[in-house]
Amino acid sequence: MRLYSLSVLYKGDPKVHLLKAAYDVSTFNFFQRSSVQEFMTFTSQLIVERSELGSRASVKEQEYLCHVYVRNDGLAGVVIGDNEYPQRVCFTLLDKVLDEFSRQVSKIDWPSGSPATISYAALDGYLIKYQVRPARR
Residue limits of the Longin domain (predicted)? Predict the structure, then answer.
C-alpha cells in the first residue's frame, strides 16, 4: 500500500490550478520520475476540473486510484495511491489537509496562488506519515 501524491488545488471559474503538492516517486526508475510526477499533476488537475463543488470521488487511472474532494469554496485535494490503499483513510487525510490549509493560507490567495507563492509546508510530512510501510519480519 502506497501513496504517491498529495495535492491542494483551487477550482476557479475559468480553470483549475495547483496551489501546493507533494510527491513520492522514489519507487520509480530515476529516468521515469519527472514524467510520473507530471502525469500525477495533470491527472489531479483534470479530476478536479471534472468534479462538482462539494463532491468526493475515487477514480481509477491506469494502475492508480485517485481520491478527490472538492469543497464548496473551490478548495480541492487529491491523493493518488495504489489500488490497495484504504479509501476511508485517503478521505480522512484530505479533510485534515484542506481544513489546515484553509486556516493557514488566506482565501484571497487561492485564485492567484501557485506552488511557488503559497507558503504551506505540511504536505511532505503528511505524505511520509500516511505511507504504509511493510512490516519487518
Answer: 8-127
β-pair partners for 59: 66
Vertex 80: Cα angle to 56 and 86 (nearest 5): 70
pLDDT in tens, 15-66: 899 999 999 998 899 999 999 999 999 999 999 999 999 999 999 988 899 9
Residue 6, H or E segment: strand 3-11
Q: Look at residue 63 in the predicted model and tell me its pLDDT.
A: 86
CA 13 to chain centroid: 20
DSSP string, 78-121: EEEEETTS-HHHHHHHHHHHHHHHHHHS-GGGTTT--TTT----
